[in-house]
Amino acid sequence: MNHFVDYFLYHAAATLTRTRSVRPRAAGTIEGVTSSTSQPAAPNAKLQLVRGLFQLAAIVIITIWGFLAWPLPFPGIFTGLGMLALSVLLWALFLSPRPVLRVDRFAAALFELLLLAAAVGALLGFGLFWVWPVLFGLVGAALGYITSRSAR
After folding, report:
1. What confidence score (pLDDT) does residue 119 get?
2. Which of 15, 41, 90, 127 sits 20 to 30 Å CA-CA off 52?
3. What span, in angstroms and rounded, lies between the C-alpha atoms of 58 and 48?
4. pLDDT per position as a tens digit, 42-77
5. CB 66 within 8 Å of CB 36
6. Other C-beta atoms within 10 Å of 89: how many?
7. Is 25 helix (H, G, I), strand (E, B) or coil?
8. pLDDT tens across 95-130, in order?
9. How far apart are CA 85 and CA 101, in angstroms?
10. What values do phi and psi take at 35, rounded to 5?
11. Does the predicted TM-score (pTM) go above 0.85?
């Protein structure tokens, strides 16, 4: 199991930094898999993973809100699918590890804050106690700020 986590973190870091170092492969090993005795994965890769999970959670929250905010079947289904398409499109265009449209870090931060604000609004729309949505938004914004600062 540890090799799987090392393999995932190595490729996540390689994808996020857009560089992939070529290492000599020892006999009987899989390319890119690091052993548990080698260097641990960069802390930035773990933060990027948590940031990605927060962005995924925001997309799921917005989608569920889109389905449940209007009566089903037709307004709710169309709204839910529309919110899913809109949030995934926003993420793919500006926030993904390989964004379609390259923008400066300030515009990317603005789009990330818009995604988090929509998720916080959806959580408030569900009727959750205000502390949990605010905590979700603050932690997500802090993760975005820390990972963008360490990426420079």
Report:
1. 95
2. 127
3. 15
4. 668 888 899 999 999 999 999 999 999 888 888 889
5. no
6. 11
7. coil
8. 888 889 988 889 999 999 999 999 999 999 999 999
9. 17
10. -85, 165
11. no
